[in-house]
Amino acid sequence: MVDAAPETAVANGIAGPAYDEPPIIEVRDLNIGYGGKAALQGVDLDIYRHEIFGIIGPANSGKTSFLRALNRMDAFNTAMEVRGSIRLNGKDINDWRNVYALRSRIGVVFPLPVGLPLTVYENVAFSPRLRGIRKKAELDEVVERCLRRAALWDEVKDRLDSLGSLLSGGQQQRLTIARALSQEPELLLLDEFSIAVDPVTTMRIEDVLKELRSEMTIVLVTNLVQQARRLADRTAFFLMGELVEIGDTEDLFEGKVTDQRTTGYIEGRFG
Amino acid sequence: MFAATPLNRRSHRNQNVARAVFFLMTVALVIPVLIIVGTLVVRGGPALSWEFLFTAPRDNMTAGGILPALVGTIWLVVVALLASVPVGVAAALYLSEYAPDNLLTRTINLAIINLAGVPSIVHALFGVGAFVYFFRFGASILAASLTLAVMTLPVVIVATRESLQAVPQAFREACWNMGATRWQTIRKVVLPNSISGILTGVILEVSRTAGETAPIMFTGATAFVAFLPESVFDQTMAMSYHLYYIATQATDVPEQLTFGVALVLIAIVLAMNAVSIAFRVYLRGLKKW
Question: Which member of A2, A22, A227, B26 has the greatest number of CB atoms within 10 A?
Answer without folding.
Answer: A227
